[in-house]
Each structure stands twice: as structure tokens, then as C-alpha cells.
Amino acid sequence: MPVVRDLGVLLRLRYFRRLLAVRLLSQSADGVYQVALATYVVFSPENQTTPGAIASAMAVLLLPYSLIGPFAGVLLDRWPRRQVFVYGNLLRATLACCTAALLLSSVPDWLFYASALCVTAVNRFVLAGLSAALPRVVDTERLVLANSISPTAGTLAATAGGGLALAIRLLTDGSDAAVVLLGAVLYLLSALVSLTLPRTLLGPDRSLHHVRLREALATTTRGLVAGLSHLAERKDAAHALAAMTVIRFCYGALTVMVLMLCRYAWSDSESDGLALLGLALGASAAGYFAAAVISPWAVGRFGRHGWLAGCAGAAALLEPALGLPFAPAPMLAAAFVLGLVTQGSKIATDTEVQTTVDDGYRGRVFSLYDVLFNVAFVAAAALSALALPPDGRSIVVVLAVAALYACVSVAILRRRRVSDELQRARPAE
Length: 429
Fold this sequence. Notes:
Elements: H1 2-12, H2 14-43, H3 51-76, H4 81-103, H5 109-133, H6 143-171, H7 176-194, H8 213-233, H9 235-265, H10 270-323, H11 328-356, H12 359-387, H13 395-425
């Protein structure tokens, strides 16, 4: 098969393998660190976990991606990318060690969150740099395949790192510091592997002319505004993005609920709570995988808007049916359904944006998409902090989320009908 043959060729490319190793080590460390942060906030015996604490942790993990992401490229086009990997991972290893020391000390929570925020902020530069450097180690013919392999492998590495973090925490009697130090070791290994790449191989070309930094940042800001204006002219893409933002908001609210249920309602011990959380995350991941398998057929059969509306409608019906008992087994089934719904909706939205937005604006629109995607999740966590009781059982939240899903489904179906009417009217004009 040509794909298998090209994959074999890719893996024989020395510098591609090394760049992939940098990604795998870096993202596995991210998975370790993120789980360490989450378990410290949710499952540490010394902490009285609240939805507000969970919201703060999610803000630390996700907001740097949104606020820094659109501007990271401006700096990455000025700094040697290999050095970004070396110094970025060394900096994260150092900061992770500092975080471990804070975990062992009696310090204010804001200092711990500040340290964690610095680690996740650097991550945005490393991930963007890995994507930007890929064309420097792979030929054009195999770039699409490399773009499929690298992020997928990185996601799997992050998942494996999270699983390893949970195992280490259970083996060390709940030592969050030990888990964070494991992340620091992986960051350090990623920096060392980066040194095996030639300094100038990954670019950027130093011969290229760069405008002044202030001008470049201002241009980026204007570009985002232009992308927003262009999106306002592409109604179908704008409606799909709005729908995806609401669906992501719902997923965020239910994630906080499940965390609280695992911590207080479903278990009497930390290890049982962690095991249940692992099962919930696994069920959601299985839903994501199912969406990747089903969505190409579903979009072909029902159209992008039809599949998006179907996902939201299914969630509106199944989420309260499975969630209102507040029992582990039906809630795990709900986690699978919501994983499928969220990822299926994202696939449909991605395709809608890719096919209806002009190529010259696509990058800027996807930057806005990234901001909306993460801010919606954090906003949901913040509002859940106000609405959820200590044990996570809230009929109001479950029904409100179901109502939001239903509104999305109805709105998208109406938009689909308008689009169909416009399509039929055009030949008659």
C-alpha cells in the first residue's frame, strides 16, 4: 500500500525521527504535568476540592493556548526553532522542579498556579514550533502523511503520559511532587534529543527580511480582526463555529460535574476516585475515536450541518437520560456519547470552515476558532463553579446543558433549511 510505503520512508528519515522523538517526549511530559495538576486540585487529601478550584486549574491549562497562540508564530519566525525546543524544554523542566518544591511546601495557591501557568504557556511555543519545523525534515510529497502521524502520535504520547502519572501517583501514595518530577525528567530528555538536530536545520531562514516586532504583533492583531470580518460574511461557517462553541461549553460543564462526582459522590477513597476518573476519560476517548470512524460516512450521508445538528440533538436526548441518575455506569455511557458528539461536531465544523472560508483567511479564522474552543471550556468551568453543589449532583446543570444542546440542534437545522433555499433560488436568478 502506498501509505504504508510512505510511512516506512518517513521513519527512515533520520531528522524526522529525531523531531518526532522531541514531540513524543515533550507531549508525554505535558500529559504527566496536566494529570499532576488535575489530581492535585481534585484528589489531594489536604485540598477541599471545589468547582472553583477546578475552574482555576482549567484556566491555567487552557488559557495560554488561546491568549498566546495567535502571536506565537510571530516570535517563532524570528527565533531558531531548534533553540526554542532546547531552551523551552529546559525552562519547563526547571519550572516543573519549582512546582514540585511548591507542592512540598506550604505556599499560597496562587504561587502554585503561577508556576503551572508558566509551564503551560511555554508549551504553546514548543507545539507551534514542532508544526512549523516539520517541512524542514520531510519532503513535500509526504508532508500530509507526516502532518497526520506527528500530531496523532503526540496525542497518544500525552495520553500515555497521563496514564503513567496516575500509576506513579497510586504507587507513591498520592505524591503529586513525584509525578511532577517525572514530567521534569521527560522535559529534560526532550531538550537533550533536540540537541541532536543541527542548529540551523529547522529554520527559520536567517536571510529572510523580518519587520519590526511591534509592527508584526500589530499586523497579527489586525489580521485576527480581518478574519472575524470575513467570517461574518460566511454565514454557514460562522453558525457552525457558534454551534461548536456552545457544544464545547456544554462539554466543559459536564467535565467539571464528572470530576466532582468522582471525587465525592462515587468513591470513599482517593484511589477509587482516580480509577473512576480514568474510566470516564477512557470512555470519552473511545467516543472521540468512534467519531473519527463514523463522521466521514455521516457527513457524506447527512451533510455537515445535518451531522452537526444530529450530534447536538442526540446529546440533548441522551445526556439527561444517562446523567440524571448520577450513577457511575450510565454516566460512563454518557461520557462515551458526549465524546462522540463533541468530536463529531468538531470534525463537521472543521470541514465547514476549511471548505467555505477563503484560503487567504483560513489561518486567521482557525486562530479565532482555537480561542473560542478553549475559552468556552474555561467559561463553562467558571459558571459550573457557581452552579454545582459540593458533590457535583445538579439536576439544574444537567437540564440546562440538555437545553443548550437542543437549541444548537434546532438553530443548525434552521440554518440548513435557509442554505438549501438559497441554493435552490440561485439558478432561477
